[in-house]
Amino acid sequence: MNLIKTIRTVVAASAAVASAAMLSSIAQAQSLEDVYKGKTVTIMLGHPPGGSYDLYSQLAAEFMGKYIPGEPEIIVQHRPGGGGRKGASFFINKTEPDGLTFGVFPDSLGQIQFTRPKAAKWDARKFRYIGRFSTANVGFAVRVDKATSIDEMRKRELVVACTSKNARAAQQSAALHNHAGFNFKIVAGYKGSQATVMASLRDEADVYSQNYASFVSDPADLGEGTMKILIQTGLERDAGMPDVPLMQELTDDPTGKAVLTWLGSSAPIGRSMMIHPDTPEYIVQGIRTAFQKMLKDDAFLAEAKKRNAIITPGTGEELEAILAEQMSASDDLIAAVREAIDTSDAKTVK
């Protein structure tokens, strides 16, 4: 976007316009203060306490309020269910566009709209993002007594623990099975992501996947060397996993590469915050400004480091551009994706 360059050009060209812009900025701040002074803002998420969604939401609740005119109190509300879909649906369809509710929901909501349209009670093309805390590349952790390399993984059947057949972990595993030469046996039905971790650590399963930030915030999930991350998802390798290949790097087939790339394309959206699509624009812009100020706050960054929370910021404008690209996928690509992520043969945990 060229908005900042345009503003600078106008200001340099005309003192009168600069004065008008200043007055507009002051008026907007006063309006935001009217919206937020004495109010309580709710950060809503679709997952239970614990985990990366809660981690970033709690940080924002603690540090963001002082950068919002009116300095509202901020609380966190959990609406778990359906892998985050229940909370997202409530946020989009049941909350008011008054700027008093923010959302931290799965980065895969746009993809769900294509792969499971009946489950998507939203139009992702209309999403308004405030900003991003961190990218969310997913890491596939494998028991080292089963495999320590991609070649070793391809030589044997590996059991992948998943929460459900429709979970991202199951779908991505199915796509790797179908397009990258892995012999994955998907077992679904574990009660929560931590249950898939424990199943792998006790040798009931061989593989599980989760957001890389979760590995960083809780290194015990790798079991002190029991597990090793051998595959990651995303459009670029995470800085913390520079030697771990992306899914799409594991095949030379053009269709497979396109499918696996699209399945990893939500990672740059990552752990981000959104606001109701119908929120007035001056509120959207004001909250975006507050969010970016928070991300540069020394106390916020110190606390994030203390809690092992990765911070790789992004703006709301950047996130909406990423989502627009994802939502422009061709019918042929989506058809190939749907075929690749078929988990109808998945087993159910006993």
Structural class by secondary-structure content = alpha/beta
Tell me the radius of gyration.
21 Å
CATH top level label of the largest domain? Alpha Beta
Instruction: Outline the biggest β-sheet.
Output: 6 strands, mixed
Q: What CATH architecture of the largest domain do you see? A: 3-Layer(aba) Sandwich
Q: SSE order in H/E notation?
A: HHEHEHEHEEHEHEHEHEHEHHEHHE
Q: Count of helical segments?
A: 14
Low-pLDDT sequence parts: 1-24
Query: How much helix, percentage-wise, in residues?
Result: 40-55%
Shape: globular
Number of strands: 12
Mean pLDDT: 91
Summarize the structure.
This protein has 350 residues and is α/β, with parallel strands linked by helices. It has helices at 3-13, 15-36, 51-63, 85-94, 109-115, 150-154, 168-179, 193-201, 212-217, 254-263, 281-295, 298-306, 316-327, 331-340; strands spanning 40-45, 73-78, 101-104, 128-134, 138-143, 157-161, 183-188, 207-211, 227-232, 271-275, 314-315, 347-348.
